[in-house]
Specification:
Elements lengths: L3 H23 L13 H13 L17 H7 L7 H6 L30 H7 L2 E16 L5 E15 H5 L4 E12 L2 H6 L20 E11 L4 E8 L24 H4 L11 E11 L2 E9 L19 E9 L2 E2 L4 E12 L3 E7 L5 H4 L3 E4 L2 E14 L7 E12 L5 E12 L9 E11 L1 H12 L14 E14 L2 E11 L10 E11 L1
Antiparallel strand pairs: 1-2, 1-19, 2-3, 3-4, 4-5, 5-6, 6-7, 7-8, 8-10, 9-10, 10-13, 11-12, 13-14, 14-15, 15-16, 16-17, 17-18, 18-19
Length: 519
Amino acid sequence: MKNPKSIAIIFLAIIVLLIPFAHSLAADVLFTTRPATVSPQREKNVSKRQEQNHEETTEHHHNGFWDNGSIVLFMEKDNAAASSQQRQRTGMAASALGSAWPEIRIVPKDDRIFGTLGGLRTKLESHGFAFTLTYLNESLGDVAGGRKRGFAYSHQVVMGTDLDFEKMIGVKGLSFHMLGIQRAGRNVATDYMGVTSLIQPQEDYGAGGNVLYKLVYMYFEQSLFNKKLVIDFGRMPANMKFGTSYLGCYALNMITCAHPSGLSNVTKWRSWPFSQWGIMARVNPGAHLYAQAGLYEVSPTEGGRAGFNFSFAQDGFVIPMEIGWQPEFGKGKMTGHYKLGGYVDTSNHPDPFTSIDGRPKPISQLPGKTERQRGAWYVGADQMVFRYGKAANQGIILYGLAGWNMGASLPNQSQYTLGIISQGMFPARITDAISFFWTRQVVNRKITRMQEMQSDMGLPLLGGVSKPQSSFQVLELTYTAFVSPGVKFFPDLQYIIHPDANRVYPNALLAGFRLLAQF
């Protein structure tokens, strides 16, 4: 698995197989092709419905997938994915990641403090240039329980640009995306709640601090067959588009926003703001289906402190895969997102408990044996179950995610998350939302066994804790308030059960807020 040529062949095979796999899911029940000829008015109507991305198209029977050019028709069928420009014009989600999210939210057009800058922004976008500047503040205090009382401030400044080369120089479907951050502040988890960073209540705290600009991603995107096939290549986090959900970022805690941190924490399936060389492809066959896979380097440098170390000295590869369904049910168009995915990491990592001779490390005093492959898999879903009004997310949405690690060297064993979001319940404030999330993470059992043995032998425990770790839970209640164009305020309460995943410190109650300003 370490041979780059073998990995590349596997990756290409996966991409090739995705197309018929996605087609087979849709065949006979959901899949249709476009008729060979349509009237000009019909073509105009179909194009309009494609741009709105909410209308249904008329179905037609086809003879076969591979005959009479059906593959081209298949790839050009009604596009279910919004363009990057559509996503940006719609505004940014509650997420700190902003325009990185593919989903469309119910915020006003040009939802920015400075609006269109007197029409300048609109004119630039019409010529293929868009830019992002966002300030995020997440401040939380430990008001009860934990190690001690205290308040921590952290912030993140997001700076990015998007270039549409089709508008600029006529290269159809080609675009370029670059985004970086600057972070600063303190960590409420290690300052007041416990002694480890296993739980991170502030999503914006961490890597990217104390540098002027930390590169998060810089990649080219090529869309083909009317956006039915999208290929990304460049520097980007491996899990930026795998296992993520913008709904998770209605919460502040990193365990929920924006992907299952129990599967990515201290892994090579890297997340914001780390970047890796990588390539991924996504097939959107219509009928609200998609399939995607990628190939990313496991880098010893991980871009360096500022993310601009572009050396390619890989220690292996991360191969993520995901399939999904994004349906709309009933006349109310109750939207949902369903996904199944996982990743394989081919790099080497030491076992935290078993030594090279097969005995426990505290007894043998030898290094841990090498684990030559690891990974994880997950299943996630969200579904609107009640609609208040016609706006996209105006209703009650149920959210769930479960993930399991498959490897001895990973710090966590599993993660389970449930949530409910009620947005637009007040007719005069359809963009406001109340959300509640519950998450439970289980620590890798090998780490627990190691700590138990160290405790019995009177040795310092792995991870710097004073008692063995097992599991912890996070309950979070957040209100999303759109204060004015470009400004959002999120009062937040978090209740942490078993800080440090043990019973050393009492359960902690955190209170604070997120402030988001998009310019």
